[in-house]
Amino acid sequence: MTQHKTLGIVDIGSNSIRLVIYELHEEGAYRIIHEDKYAARLSGVVEPDGTIQRSSLNTAVTILRQFRATCESYQTVDIRAAATAAIRNAVNAAQIIHWLESETGLTIECVSGDREAYYGFLGVIQSIELTDGFVVDIGGGSTEITVFRNRQRLHSVSLPIGAVNSHARYGGEDEWTEENEQALCNEVIAALQDQDWIGKHPGLPLIGLGGTMRTLAKVEQKRIQYSLPITHHYEIGSEAMENIARTLPYLTSAQRKKVPGLAKDRADIIVPGVLILRTVFHLIQGDRYVVSGAGLRDGLLRDYLASGQPAAPDALKDSIRNFLHFGPPIPQKRLQRIYQDMVTLYTALQGAAPDASEDHVLYTASMLHMAGKQINYFRYTQHSAYWIMNASIYGLSHRETILSAIAADYHPKKRTPQLIQKHEDILNDSDVRRAHRIGSLLRAAEAINRAESIAAIHAHVEKDSLLVTLTCTDEPLLELNGLEDAVKDVQEAWGITLKHSIQQASKG
């Protein structure tokens, strides 16, 4: 019998204290089963002499005790607690850690700036399939910047400049002055002037972590009425971010609280956050902003699971593996065969193997098209489409997510056109034909693998026909019955005649 256990990760940040509880499987699969946070704003209780007094930690102690009790209720085998900028930058950091540990019973790691950057980088590369980029993590009391190439970390720096402590230094009760805005930007520029690597990798995406980046994504999505309200892997152009950065500082606090997508408890610290972000973007000469929903806590988990081999080899496959492990009991060998048969049919029809983006869609649609059975067997393909679009699957762009969902619930006469129309703000014109083609291949591959009679397929194109040879171990009655309907969809989507022949598998 396989064993499951639970792990608690506590992130004692400068703005918020967060708890995530993961369910872990002995083979490495994991999922989040509980999450909580409290905006303790430790950066705001630092004294003028750089210390944090014991009396200022009452709230933090209470929250940590409650988080520990929550972990105990979930029977966690371990609790990994990490304290970042507000505590590590305090003059009496060691004393603060001692107070917190003695009064909560937790063992707390005081994370260095470089280590925090490392954990953030781990969170990004296990969740986004970008090869190169800058990771920028804006917290309450610090900002970590990392450049990576070929998914390898090259340089990192931690600045003692964050959204909460910058607001305390430069922000007013209401709108910001132009002088204070420039003073914050100048501080960031001065802090990075000795980091010569900052300007040596132009044209890379800025991958933003933390509440500032997620909030800005929500604001932009609300502004344009974006059809997929998922922030992970959402991209924001430089012009759109400039518009936000030029607007927010000069709104009153009351006006900012009414901005769609902007949570009231971030109405004050969002201004220094976006100013820091934009300044770094200009210095690195970035080409776009990308939101990562994964960050320090995900990096801590990855380090816990595979210290020394921290990077997930394939973000998409790792994410889908996690889902399938905890999802409905579906034969994964059958899902793999469906994927392989889709690739075989696609390659024959296109005359070339799928590129990386196309393969992402083929793989996701084939492996998750039965995911909806977790909700209810009946109409499960509709549930699968919803699940794919709302589960924040790692390794997919938003376009790939929508196309995968459409393919998983492929119904060319009704639901597919409706989904395409709903998400036309995300899809390209060419994606309409692409969605029909991939969806029809999934239906055909499903039919081929309806039972266990077909051991292998071979496909090639002759003139205007796709010729598919089915190598069978038994008479494929169920498969042919399903293939009859699927053939019509393939022929219509690809503009080709599909013909099949049967050969007996050798009994050697």
Commentary on this structure:
The protein is of the alpha/beta class and 508 residues long. It contains 19 helices and 14 strands. The strands form three sheets. Strands 8-7-6-9-11-10 form a six-stranded mixed β-sheet, with helices on both faces. Strand 12 and strand 13 form a beta hairpin. Helix 4 (113-125) packs across helix 11 (296-305). The chain is elongated. The model has no long low-confidence stretch (mean pLDDT 92).
Query: In order across it, which strands form the biggest sheet?
Result: 8-7-6-9-11-10
Strand % is: 15-25%
Output the number of helix runs: 19
Average pLDDT works out at 92
Overall strand count: 14
Overall body shape: elongated
Structural class: alpha/beta
Using the CA coordinates, give the radius of gyration: 26 Å
What share of residues is helical?
40-55%
Give the biggest beta sheet: 6 strands, mixed
Spans with pLDDT under 50 lasting ≥5 residues? Answer: none
Task: Provide a short characterization of the protein structure.
The protein is an alpha/beta fold and 508 residues long. It contains 19 helices and 14 strands.
Key descriptive features of the protein:
five-stranded mixed β-sheet, single chain, 508 residues, 19 helices, 46% helix, alpha/beta, six-stranded mixed β-sheet
Protein topology:
Layout lengths: L3 E9 L4 E9 L4 E9 L19 H16 L2 E8 L1 H4 L4 H12 L3 E3 L2 H13 L7 E6 L4 E7 L2 E8 L3 H8 L7 H15 L13 E4 H15 L10 E2 L1 H10 L5 H4 L13 H15 L4 E3 L4 H10 L9 H12 L5 H19 L5 H13 L11 H11 L7 H11 L6 H8 L7 H19 L5 E9 L2 E8 L4 H18 L2 E8 L4
Parallel strand pairs: 1-4, 4-5, 6-9, 9-11, 13-14
Antiparallel strand pairs: 1-2, 2-3, 6-7, 7-8, 10-11, 12-13
